[in-house]
Amino acid sequence: MFAAVLGMAGGEALAQIGDSNSAINKAGSLRFQAHRMARLYLQTGMGIETDRSRRQLESVSGLYDRRLIELKNYAPTPEIKETYVSLEKAWIGYKDLLFGSKVSPENARKIVEVSDQLVAIANKATGQLTSYAGSAQGGLVNVSGRQRMLSQRMSKYFLAVAWGVAPANAQGEINKDKAEFVQKLDELAAAPVNTQAIKDELGLARQQWAFFENALAGREVDKKSSQINVATTSERILEVMDGVVGMYEKLAK
């Protein structure tokens, strides 16, 4: 039911980072994967494809380990290296929450909160790498990569609200993320460097956004169906946006 996308699942061999745009893409992946792991944890606790969600969570965790080491080793400045050292410390604590005890609402509440903290550090590192690259194309890799993060943050908060473990401002954050996602999608569509393939993929992303936005409205009478719908559509839009990021990365080389 849930997609295992190249660059998102944990099974692929990881090549060494060869350039700044590849680094920005991979750095950005640590933003969305932190939220995605929180969502997958929530799914296991809520009985949404429990076994599959657990396997995905373990797979993504392994990928996060490898990506973090790769980026820390690549870090081109002491400041960026320091940020990744901070992220590594935060990741150790987060991983313990994910796997160190039985799944529970109390633990889920902590995971929702700590995932935001982890993403804040990962976002700082991604911004530092984007500034270091200093290219317009690198900026597009960052912006399109952030769309992946927004999709996972919205779905995480939706499920957290449904399970009763969300912070008080969760719905407000979802609404802000919706507005930003649409704004950035328009911004990407207007980029003068877009190839026809990128335009087509962005068109597909806009279609998937319509499905995802509808799922986030939670109009189904059966709440479990609504939760499954959010989980599946968030994976699909993530898959499409991951493809867009890859296109911008190749375009920038």
UniProtKB/TrEMBL annotation:
The highest taxon in the source lineage is Bacteria
Q: Which UniProt keywords apply?
A: Membrane, Transmembrane, Transmembrane helix
**Keyword Cytoplasm carried by entry:** no
Tell me which residues make up the NarX-like N-terminal domain.
Answer: 14-83, 139-216
Instruction: Name one cellular component (GO) term.
Output: membrane
Provide an example Pfam family for this protein: PilJ
Cellular location of this protein? Membrane
Report the main location listed first in the record: membrane
User: What is this entry's stated membrane topology?
Assistant: Multi-pass membrane protein
Q: What is the protein named?
A: NarX-like N-terminal domain-containing protein
